[in-house]
Specification:
The chain is built from 5 helices and 11 strands, in the order E-H-E-E-E-H-E-E-E-E-H-E-E-H-E-H. The protein is an alpha/beta fold. Strands 1-3-2-4-9-10-5-8 form an 8-stranded mixed sheet, with helices on one face. The protein has a 3-stranded antiparallel sheet with strand order 7-6-11. 27% of the residues are buried.
Length: 242
C-alpha cells in the first residue's frame, strides 16, 4: 500500500480506493456541502466531521450527483472487473489564482491528455508525498502556465474540498482514479496584465487559458449551483454561460 494521503482523524490507515470519503464522513444522499474539519500535513490531508486536535480549517466538502463511489457497493460487477486494491484515495490541489483586479485564471486541458481532456479547470494536480499543499499547488501552477508568484506578493486561504473520480460516471466504466481535491484561493498583489506577461503555457498540458471577471464567474457558478444570477451581466457573455 502506498503512503497514506487522505486519512480520517483517529484512523492511521488511508481511506481505501473504493470508499466514498463523503459517505465515511456522514454525507447523506444529497449533494452537500458537508462541513468538514481538516488538518493539513506534508503530503497528507486529515478529515473529520467533528473537531479534532490539529484541525486548522472547517471547509465545505462536495461531490457531483453522479459520483460513482456511493453506488459501487450496490451495483454488481462483471467478472474480472476489479478496483485498485494497492492504493488509497489520492490528494490533489487546485489553485484559484485571483489577480489584484479580481480576475481568475482558468486553463483548458489539452485534448490529448488521458484524464479529463479538453476541460476548463483551475491550474492544479497531484500533490507529491513530501510536499506542503500550497507548495504542490504553486508547483502545478508553474508547470502548467510557467507562472511563478514572488514570495510576499500573494496570500492564500483554503476554499473547499471536492471528491473526484475518473471516469466520473459508472456508465463510463469503473473508476481508475479517486482524489480529494483541495481548492486554494491564491490572491496576488499583481494585476492580470502583470501576471499575463509572465505566462508561458505548457503545450503538453494546456491548450488555452482565460481570465474570468467577477460577473462572468458569478454567472457561470449560478448555472451550476442554482444561486441567483447577478443583476448586472456583461452583454458579451458566451451563450454557454447564460
Amino acid at each position: 500500500m502506498a503512503a497514506a494521503r487522505v486519512l480520517l482523524s483517529g484512523r492511521p490507515e488511508s481511506v481505501s480506493f473504493a470508499q466514498s470519503v463523503c459517505g465515511l464522513l456522514g454525507a447523506g444522499p444529497g449533494l452537500g456541502p458537508w462541513p468538514t474539519y481538516c488538518g493539513f500535513k506534508r503530503g497528507q490531508l486529515v478529515l473529520s466531521d467533528r473537531p479534532f486536535p490539529g484541525a486548522s480549517a472547517r471547509l465545505p466538502l462536495q461531490r457531483p450527483p453522479f459520483c460513482p463511489f456511493p453506488a459501487l457497493d450496490q451495483q454488481p460487477r462483471a467478472p474480472g472487473a476489479e478496483l485498485p486494491t494497492n492504493r488509497g484515495v489520492d490528494l490533489a490541489v487546485a489553485v484559484v489564482l485571483q489577480s489584484s483586479d479580481q480576475t481568475v485564471l482558468l486553463t483548458r486541458r489539452t485534448r490529448t491528455l488521458n484524464v479529463s481532456p479538453n476541460l476548463w479547470v483551475p491550474p492544479g494536480g497531484h500533490v507529491e508525498p513530501d510536499e506542503e499543499l500550497l507548495d504542490g499547488g504553486l508547483r502545478e501552477l508553474w508547470e502548467e502556465s510557467g507562472l511563478q508568484l514572488p514570495q510576499g506578493q500573494f496570500f492564500w486561504v483554503p476554499l473547499g474540498l471536492w471528491e473526484s473520480a475518473y471516469p466520473p460516471r459508472l456508465s463510463w466504466g469503473l473508476p481508475k482514479y479517486h482524489h480529494i481535491i483541495l481548492y486554494l484561493l491564491v490572491i496576488s498583489q499583481e494585476s492580470q496584465q502583470q501576471l499575463q506577461a509572465r505566462i508561458h503555457p505548457n503545450p503538453r498540458e494546456v491548450s488555452a487559458l482565460m481570465w474570468l471577471g467577477p460577473d462572468v464567474a458569478a454567472a457561470a457558478a449560478a448555472t451550476e449551483d442554482g444561486t441567483d444570477t447577478p443583476r448586472r451581466l456583461p452583454q458579451d457573455l458566451p451563450p454557454s454561460v447564460l
